[in-house]
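thought: fold this chain, then report.
action: predict
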Amino acid sequence: MFQSTVELYRTIEKANAVARCNARDGAASIAGPSSLGCRRTTAAALTAELWELWGDGRVLVEGAQRSLIVAELMDGQNALVASPGTVDLLSRFFARYGSALTRACPDAVPLTDRERAVLELGRRYEARLAEAGLVESDEAAFLLAGAVAAGAVPCLAVSAVDPVDAGPGLAALLRCFGCGEEARAAGSAPSVLPSLPAGVCPRFLVPAGPTAAAALVHDEIGTALEAGEHAVLVVAPDPRPLYDALAPALAADGVACALRCPVAFDRTWFGRALAAVERVASQARPVAAATDFVYNPLAAVGARDARRLNGALRADRLIDGTAMATRLSDLSPTFASFATLAAGSDAGFQERARALDAIGAHLRGATGLSVVARSCESAAVAALATALDAAAALGCAPASALGLARQATVPVSALSPSVPGAPSVEFAALARLGSLVPDSYDAVILADLTDAAFPAASRATALDELAEKLGLPERGAALDEQRRRFAAAMGAARARFACVVPQRQASGEEAYPAFVLKEYAARLAEAGRARALADGDEAAARAWSETDRDLFDLPVPLAADAICRGEDDLVAGLGETYAPVTGGLALANPVRGCLDRLALVDFLRTVREEGRRLVVLSPSALELYLGCPYAWFVQRRLRPSAPDEAFGPLEKGSFVHGVFARFYDRLADEGIVRVVPEQWAHCEAVLAEVVDAELGRQRTLEAGEGRLLPLSRAERLEVERLRDQIAESLRRQSRFAPSYAVHGHERPIAVEDAVDYAGVRVNGRVDRIDVDRDAGRFTVVDYKGAVGAPYAAAMDEDAVVPPVPGRVQALVYAQALRPALEGLHCAGALYLGYRARTDKDLVAGAADGAVFEDDPFVKGASLVPMNFEAYLDTVESQIAAALEGLYRGEIAPAPRGAWVCEHCPVPNCERRLS
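observation:
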């Protein structure tokens, strides 16, 4: 009687490949002669077929259903950490040992509390499966084995071509079919690798790093194609970057390029868009989340609109998730669908299914997506649809489906157009090695032979010890699995087998070769020595016994033939054709600080008056130009700035200026001309009201007006610290210059006021003017966070010409106000540090020595030992000489001190001092 036989393979792809090879070659089986009725499948598929025919009506549980159930059960216990990693680990454990856990005898062996918790969870898992009408594949195999033994299920002739990593139930079923030990031993890896098939050329490619690796793979493919090797397989841990880099050039030459690899769900555009919308809805970093979404291709937002929205959102710290969602909904046709998917418990399965269909329809009609991207995104949409269907069938919450999808990987496949008979190159992930059959490709290129791609480390998990205690079947050794994969790659090659062994990783760290490289090289050396001895060439035999330490201890003949490539030629390493550049355009080397073709003054604001053309500068810009012309050019003309509304020194400084101005206005309304220690209690109460009012006013300002907006707890603590600093500063100010009173503050100097200084027109705003009416003097006060040496006049008594201080802003204002304050003489141009911690750190600048010599707040470095107004005139004349360079267009780097470089945005300046 005719009896069907079954051959078991590792993957269904390999089983189908064997069938194609046999149909092409006319053989019955690569495993040996068999009847024409031979079926080729996998152990899991065989169990599913038999269970469908002879099962008890329950349905085999799918991976998505298993993960959802385990995640659901994890929420109801406290013994184990409920994390995605734990759910994945337990799901794989239950899938492998499901048939044995309910029959385990935990009292027979010593178990820890957590191990008992795992077994209890396993029993609850089995109960939940029964409730849902589901059964684990391994449990189904165990029941089928009993049915076969009882004669209720026909016995099959089963042989294992590949080893079967079986759980206890599947192992029992295979034993019933006479395929017990055979299933574990079939195709098992030997202690050493097999020899390279006869006629296959070994190749070693040694790039210095990943940039050179792509170029070497490109060249090796070209060499193989030129040699008539038309079927090439390139295998890498992540083949997509290689495909993206090489496929365009290969396709242009008529080579068909295919890609097969898995991609993590959260690395797809669909997964990223969904995660971004979830963050917008939860108001966790909403600006960054909204930016991530608008730049996502699936948002269907034009590049110009995306940039505009990005700038608008980042410039406004007050915008919240609700407002962002409204703007995104108005701009993106897909945002509403993504928002429905990410709606938590607010949307049911039907609403989410309709939203997913809408995104799928948009994806099908989208333009500008590559074949790979379209395949990847379609697979991601399908993965979420599968998770939603599984959750709906089990009665789980829709949110659990989102969590399941985030942990998934999606299959990506793509094939470029080709003509019949054209050469082909397939780019695949390492998992492809498990499906290879012998002599299936002309050339095989392993694009990464480092220990990261073929790890030797044990893959044991925290549950393997529990399985050992319960006497459950162990998994195969990791070393054997890696040898088996490498041997499959060797056997698949008909003419060429190339290994890429990079010397460094993408991070720049040293890369280490996989253990199989040493074993593979040893096998090649053994074969080489045997050939040399057979030919009577003892010198060649000795050469095969020597190794090259600089090339991973490869035998000398192999090292001599290895192709090495550095990363020094970046163009050849990244170019479209990976070839040296044959032509180019020579450009003049730019010189920092040199404007070859531009007249600087033509690009500055100027005014014409009496035949003169005066540049308009604020005192702070003038100060910066004196500090370093190049720093001024970059900061004030190029104006590099981040688009985000910040919470930093500039915003805090603007806030403090506003507090001081409104504080002194309140005192003026009450007839108080200065803060004195005796009135401090009242002034402190006024200050508290002013600070509160100013904080409230910040939210009424428009974005871009320097608002101080504390949004987090840490920022609110910073504001409270700033409040204390302001109060402490005013206490000290109450004891500073007791004969002076506040005359004015925030006084503007407009261009129309025609105030000139050192050959330029001045416009700006004076922070504060203090006046001693009895003595007929005034002092300019400029607020700063902290003051130090660059602010001081630093003039020795015997100096003939006073030096120009690093900070001259207050000096410019003092000189500019002299004509406007008739009858008053200037006695100081001072800076007040409102964050000062001590009295000596409160004030710095330039002060008339005859007036402020006895003031405890004014240090000696700030005293000017000469007529102060003559000092102002002399400093202005020196500044005028320096500003002549501005009219000549001089912007070369020339920092006068490290303080100029501290905030300069040019980190690679050759003159940088800090």
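thought: worth noting. DSSP finds 33 helices and 25 strands in the chain.
final: tokens above.
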